[in-house]
Specification:
Number of domains: 1
Largest sheet: none
CATH class: Mainly Alpha
Strand content: under 5%
Number of strands: 0
Radius of gyration: 18 Å
């Protein structure tokens, strides 16, 4: 996703495009809110959300996971929208969407198969009561409540706001007129 958005910025630079400070600020606001939500969501996984291979010690059905199975991926979608707002070009949205669909149409089904094999009927019931990427209004009542580790959630996500700050700084320097 970040590569697609960086490509969008490269195209914008090559074409001599600009954006406005209000759109940059709106994008920043979206990114800040969504990243806070991502850190909150990561705290329920105790900061173990970024892994090289699919693994799970437990099925998290607490906090945001009671409403949506993939709050971090939902957050990634909203981050891409926030950066696209700041970039302020139609092709930023298109390139982001293509990259998002390409990645998560593979990752999510793979993870769901893993979780279904590991947690069987418990996962099937959870899956039936929660949205994949869009939250359901009524939260799932699982048998295990996970106590969030906010420190681990923030530390596990700290690289994302740094990357986002770099993107916004570059957008500001190159495109805000």
């Amino acid at each position: 996703m970040f590569v697609a958005l960086a490509v969008s910025m490269g195209i914008k630079y090559f074409l001599g495009g600009t954006t406005t400070l209000p759109l940059l600020i709106l994008g920043l606001f979206v990114l800040a809110v969504v990243q806070a939500f991502r850190m909150y969501s990561a705290s329920f996984l105790w900061g173990r959300q970024a892994v090289a291979q699919v693994e799970a010690d437990f099925l998290c059905t607490s906090g945001p996971y009671a409403y949506v199975r993939n709050p971090l991926y939902m957050g990634n979608f909203l981050i891409g929208i926030g950066l696209s707002i700041a970039i302020n070009e139609w092709y930023a949205y298109v390139l982001f969407m293509i990259s998002y669909v390409a990645v998560y149409s593979i990752v999510i089904p793979y993870e769901e198969r893993f979780l279904e094999e590991k947690f069987r009927d418990v996962y099937r019931e959870y899956k039936a009561h929660t949205g994949r990427l869009l939250p359901k209004l009524k939260g799932y009542k699982g048998s295990v409540n996970v106590t969030p580790n906010y420190r681990a959630g923030v530390l596990g996500e700290i690289h994302v706001p740094i990357i986002l700050a770099i993107f916004l700084f570059v957008i500001f320097l190159l495109f805000v007129k």
